[in-house]
Amino acid sequence: MISLKDINKVYRTKTVETLALNNISLNVPKGEFLSIMGPSGCGKSTLLNIIGLIDEPSGGQVSIDGQNISNYNSKAIARFRNEKLGFIFQSFHLISDLSVIDNVELPLIYRKVGAKQRREMAEEALTQVGLKNRMRHFPSQLSGGQKQRVAIARAIVGKPSIILADEPTGNLDSVMGNEVMDILLNLNNNSGTTIVMVTHDESMARKTNRLVRLFDGSQVQ
Question: Which domains does the chain have, with CATH numbers?
């Protein structure tokens, strides 16, 4: 489902060159739940952004679902990202002025899905994460765990093949963190969704199929 070959990422300024990723090769089969761990600044989020087509590698090849993304222009990448990938962030990234259901519908607007179908798909996604009764609320009326469940509903509303989660439990207490993790595990086990998760939490990482560790931009496990 995800294939990275000899990925390098270098950030350059006029005076400094920083190697963020060093020769990373990684294959993630369809239906796997993979965790990426490592100390702050080791390249975890950079790697996730490259897998998510948010950032481009300085060298190497990225293939998603059998497609060599390096051949795509920016418009094709945006369309591919919207259809194939779902994103979950540590800080939720919900829009405060929109209701829960309107937040969940957002990815479908970019697909030009009709209003009635959007609403039905958003309600289904919220039901899946146990928040259908909160769909008229606003983010400010929700707990941290509820906000993250809304973010998961938004990520899955378009039924993506892959979910990319950057510290999805990082801002939550242990009880809420375990609830969010259970939702991700259910998505993986019951829907066969491929998930790549960046985390600092060893206990969460060990619930997944495989753990990859990074250190100073290189894969060490």
Answer: 2-219 (3.40.50.300)
